[in-house]
Design brief:
alpha+beta, Nucleotidyltransferase, domain 5, 7-stranded mixed β-sheet
Length: about 475
């Protein structure tokens, strides 16, 4: 293999809704190959868990197909957060719990007494298994014998890297993602992790940019690669979206990584104003630095509001929705976002609306929720939108009007894939400048009418 810098990077991208294998060309800045698979949860004993064996088969089949069509220089990994794997020398000792399961709440009282304060971890208390610490607390109590067999606690990106290389590692972007297991200020495992002994299960801390090793020779042969290729440590998906901008853009700016979750990461924002009761927190970037962040389940809520059937609205649809103040008020993903205790509701019976009107309401809802999150984390400068919402013109234009700051939409490859591939260049190489387009005008989006609509929405949301 040539000693030139890797160019074509196969990215394992495990999102909460979909898994993907993509081949990203770092020179051309685009994906040459993409295969996807729904990321299903097995509702089977001993508890709802991710179907990692199905994902593994998919990834190897997709990688074999990719290698038959293109040269592959390296592998990188990115995954959703709130997820970790307990393994022995060879395999999982327990299935990987779905973080949306309510089962950890069975021990919520005991866990709340054990977990560290927000001031130490910048990790808010979240429902179900959204705090990895709550997952571990419940698993250790319910399955003590299996838990005791664990040799390593692997953040989810590093679980897949371990399967690919056989090398166990931990990395800060996943450890610092509202786990209750990490102290961003000190850069060490939290008091909870130390007191429970979980810190001893964490492998050596590695940089996301590190090569963990070559692809295991038997896997290289299975997928048709002539020789093993390097596998990079990998990182949390929202941080993958942030990385190209972190390496190429001065602060302040905010990256909005959109998918099942809409995650805002405000480089140059305020750490001192974070409110754990409103789903704001500090993530940790790939360089180990805390970043003020906020989130809501934007993609999940958009799908619910549109009944998974969005339709392109017209200027007439938009004007009608704004003038009549037809709106959805949070929250449609209870326990998350800036209004976690609120119950989502419509101002009119949603069945009376056309698909175009529902899509208008859903797009405005997402923009209004995003604006609230940005205000809470002290965001400044341009907002850069990655993922599905980057292809929603109404969302982009409304967000720009609401924040009175530039909004830029990612062009081409998704931020997670491009960011994870960028690990192959290291921190010293000049990164490619991400391609973005400014939010355009949307016919029917009247500024004064939007402001009145937003004021009415906020009154109801804050009530």
């Amino acid at each position: 293999m040539s000693h030139a810098a890797p160019r074509r990077i196969a990215v394992v991208d495990i999102g909460k809704t979909n898994a993907k294998l993509a081949l990203h060309d770092l020179v051309e800045g685009r994906d040459l190959f993409v295969r996807t698979l729904p990321n299903t949860v097995l509702a089977a004993p001993p508890y709802p868990h991710f179907d990692v064996d199905r994902l593994w088969r998919f990834l190897l089949e997709a990688l074999a197909e990719c290698a038959g069509l293109h040269a592959v220089d390296a592998l990188s990994v990115t995954t959703h957060g709130a997820c970790a794997a307990l393994v022995d020398a060879d395999d999982l000792v327990l299935p990987i719990l779905d973080y949306e399961s309510p089962l950890p709440d069975e021990l919520a009282g005991d866990y709340d007494r054990a977990r560290p304060p927000f001031a130490e971890t910048a990790s808010p208390r979240l429902p179900g298994g959204l705090n990895v610490g709550a997952q571990l607390f419940w698993l250790e109590a319910r399955f003590p014998e299996a838990f005791a067999r664990a040799r390593h606690l692997l953040p989810y990106p590093q679980y897949w890297a371990w399967r690919l290389t056989g090398t166990a590692a931990a990395e800060v972007t996943s450890l610092g993602c509202h786990t209750d297991l990490w102290e961003p200020g000190t850069g060490r495992p939290s008091r909870l992790a130390r007191e429970r002994g979980w810190d001893r299960l964490l492998p050596s801390l590695r940089s996301a940019f590190d090569t963990l090793g070559p692809l295991r020779p038997e896997l290289a042969a299975q997928v048709g690669l002539a020789e093993p290729i390097p596998v990079f440590c990998g990182l949390h998906d929202s941080n993958a979206s942030l990385l190209p901008h972190l390496l190429s853009r001065p602060a302040p700016f905010t990256v909005l990584s959109t998918g099942t979750w809409t995650v805002a990461m405000a480089v140059g924002g305020r750490l001192d104003g974070l409110d754990p009761a409103r789903d704001t927190l500090a993530n940790v970037d790939a360089l180990g630095r805390p970043v003020p962040s906020g989130r809501f389940m934007g993609g999940r809520e958009f799908d619910r509001l549109t009944e998974n059937a969005p339709a392109e609205p017209s200027a007439t649809d938009l004007a009608r929705v704004l003038e009549n103040e037809v709106m959805a008020v949070p929250s449609f993903a209870p326990g998350t976002g800036p209004f976690p205790g609120a119950q989502g509701r419509w101002s009119v019976a949603p069945e009376t609306l056309s698909p175009q009107e529902r899509t208008t309401v859903a797009s405005l809802y997402a923009a209004l929720m995003t604006e609230r999150v940005l205000a809470l984390i002290g965001a400044g400068g341009p907002s850069i939108v990655e993922g599905p919402f980057a292809r929603n013109p109404l969302y982009l234009a409304a967000l720009q009007a609401l924040t009175a700051r530039p909004v830029l939409a990612s062009q081409g490859a998704t931020g997670t894939t491009a960011g994870a591939a960028l690990l192959a260049l290291g921190t010293q190489a000049p990164p490619p400048v991400p391609a973005h387009a400014a939010a355009g005008d949307v016919s029917g989006l009247d500024g004064p009418v939007l402001r009145r609509y937003a004021q009415a929405w906020r009154r109801q949301a804050e009530a």
